[in-house]
Amino acid sequence: MKNYFIKRTHIHIRILLVISLFILLPGMLVGQIDMEEIQADENFQWGVRAFHNGYFNQAIFYFEKALGFKPLGVRDRLWLGKALYKSGFEEAALNEWNSLLERGKGTVLLENAVRIITMRRGFGREIAEPERFVISSVITSSRTTYREFKRPSSVRARKDGSLYIVAFGTNEILKVNANGTILEVLKGGLEGYDHPFDIIETDKGFLYISEYEGNRIAKCNLAGEKLGFIGKKGINDGDLLGPQFLTMDKKGYLYVTDFGNKRVNKYDQDGQFILSFGGRKAGKSILESPTGIEVFENKIFVADVKQKKIFVFDDSGNHLGSYDDNFLWGPEGLYFDNQNLLYIADTAPFAAKTRIVTFDILQEKWNVQVDLGKEASRLLQVTIDPNGDLFTVDYNLNKIFGLSPLSSLSSGLFVQIERIDATQFPEIIVDVSVQDRYGRPITGLNQNNFIMTESSVPVSDMSLFKPVQESDNFEVVLLLEKSHKTSKLKKEMKDTINGIYSNIGNTKKIMIVSTGKNPVFEADVNASRLEKIDVINLGQYTDQWQFDTGLRLATTKLLPYRTKRAIVFITEGSLSGNPFSNYSLLDLTYYMKNNYIRFYAITIGKEKMNQDIEFMCNETGGKVFSANAPEGVTMVIKEIIAQRDPRYVITYRSGADTRFGRRFISSEVEVNMRKRSGRDENGYFGPIEF
To answer: Most-buried pick from 240, 261, 375, 593 (CB within 10 A)?
Structure first.
């Protein structure tokens, strides 16, 4: 009996233990899950903070750690992809994002970003069909938002995305922004313009304006104020009768189609007459009604509206031939893009047919780029702005047509929130990049193009800083090759650095990284010129120099700056040993490219430039220069100052509750430009409060 009671007691104890486990285990599991959730959130927070500080390797570490606690974390994997992408590891980033899309956890924004990035990595741009343009905007004086103007004869795109519109009928020139809003009206001072026809802007900050009725060319400052005149009414050498279209070659020589004298006149920038060509010689004139004019590789292309041809001359005025093939109707304005395509404004007289056609100079192939039919009446000039949009003026209908590539309208803008600075919360600073699908910066946007929200609620006190593109500020890292070959070229290296200093003026733009056996950050922006040049004599020159690690270090040093950024590699030209033992060629290229850092190379030796260096220069938008070439070093600085950058800096005041810096604040931006738009989502944590 005693054994029976003992046995039953043991059974009761076991039952109680089982019941206790059923009661306590869920709580224990929940506690464990809560703890893992907390640890994942904690690592996510530090990952976001590291990301916005430009510490992408740290961000990768924290996001991977967060995924260790929460392997299916959608948010953590999305941000891991962001950090990998900015760190140059594009393949790994795409793998993370595609894993989300395959699980059905990705957004439309993510799907679009993956599609665009994948296209850029492939041959999308190289095999793309010729663009088809469609009307995306129309500027007309009949709209109340625009100034009354009549008989527009020319439109010229500027580097900042704005346009000059020459109003022949109202004797003025309008300067409008990328949205078509008037920024300035040039009227020519007290004397005014006498029926201006065309305008060109020089790199030295001058305007040349042809005055059709005044029979002269006015040289003006950027305010449109006249500084002097070129030519006068007449038929003698250098005289003009109804000057129309203008162009300038790389040497600074000015060309004008002298319509009344049936010729082209050539002047220097001081207005001295050089020569005329195409006109009457030995009783015969080559040109009958010269209109548009452009320069391509030291050849002068001149349209003749009456003969329906494009004539070609060399820069000495010798006639080289002509193009027609019975294709043109009535060619007037000409414009060359950077891909050997000549754009022609073409109108069929008395037939109410208008179009923009192109002629491929290399393949000698004609193509109708856009057919405006009867929607326009007479097209005089054509131009392409930095964003790839085409503009043409209709002289009869008082309109300026803006035309965009159909592909850009369908794919929209590629918008990214690059960085959010919340250290001065509630004041927020946001870096936003805006590109087309090929990665080309969108230029000329203003505050009206941006809509900034937090958790879909519009922010307050939003303002736009001066875009990076419009500033001349820049930071440069000089990357010095310290190999046995460059040890014999120290003088050349010193001369190159001194040449860079001479062209910059402000020494606080330069940092130095040397690529020895162990790459070193040698000098920051505050170091003196002598200290930076003395770096040449420091450290060991070796054949085991680490190019990839040095370049990675140089790139990282530029990340904090909100300016144009560039790395200038001073090298003898070759890459010895195993230059990509730590980081691959593509990873390094994408690291610079995805952070908008241009890579330039200056060769100080006689070696032929290594193909991998050339590849990185081309992919990031940089170039290769020779220190021995005329203006070789000077051109590097000019290129850096002129480089395009897609970043805009926005400030606003947040009204969010950060919960002492522990709550994730979502942030969204939408960008609209004519009929294109794009958006991105990001977020931040406020400063930690105790």
So the answer is: 240
**Helix, strand, or coil here: 418?**
strand
C-alpha distances out from residue 235 to 195, 231, 318, 392, Å: 20, 11, 20, 31
Between 1 and 334, the higher pLDDT residue: 334
Is domain 35-127 in CATH 1.25.40.10, yes or no?
Answer: yes
pLDDT tens per residue across span 22-61: 554 555 444 555 788 899 999 999 999 999 999 999 999 9
Arithmetic mean of pLDDT, 342-348: 96
Specify the length of the chain in residues. 690
Distance (Å, whole) CA 332 – CA 153: 11
d(CA 221, CA 201) in angstroms, rounded, equals 9
Give the containing element (helix H, strand E) for 323: strand 319-323
Q: How far is CA 387 from CA 403, 436, 469, 528, in A?
A: 11, 8, 13, 40
Indicate if the alpha-carbon torsion angle 167, 170, 176, 179 is positive or negative.
negative
Output the CATH code of domain 412-467+646-685: 2.60.40
pTM of the predicted protein model: 0.87
Comparing 18-22, 68-72, 227-231, which segment has the lowest mean pLDDT? 18-22
Q: What is the mean pLDDT of the chain?
A: 90
Q: Domain limits of the chain?
A: 35-127, 412-467+646-685, 470-642
**What's the Cα-to-Cα distance from 332 to each of 104, 198, 356, 446, 567, rounded to whole Å?**
54, 12, 10, 33, 43
Structure tokens at 513: 């990284």
Instruction: Please provide residue 549's backbone torsions phi and psi, each rounded to the nearest 5 degrees.
Output: -65, -40
- Please report which helix (H) or strand (E) contains residue 446, including its range: none
**CA distances (Å), 175 to each of 160, 180, 437, in order?**
12, 9, 28
CB atoms within 10 A of CB 526: 9
In 10 A of CB 312, how many CB atoms?
17
For residue 98, give Cα distances in angstroms to 83, 90, 92: 15, 12, 10
Class of domain 470-642: alpha beta
Classify residue 64 by its DSSP letter.
H
Q: Which two tokens stand for residue 368?
A: 């109708």
What pLDDT, in 10s, does the model give residues 134-176? Answer: 898 999 876 545 568 899 999 999 999 999 999 999 999 999 9
Neighbour tally for 253: CB within 10 Å? 17
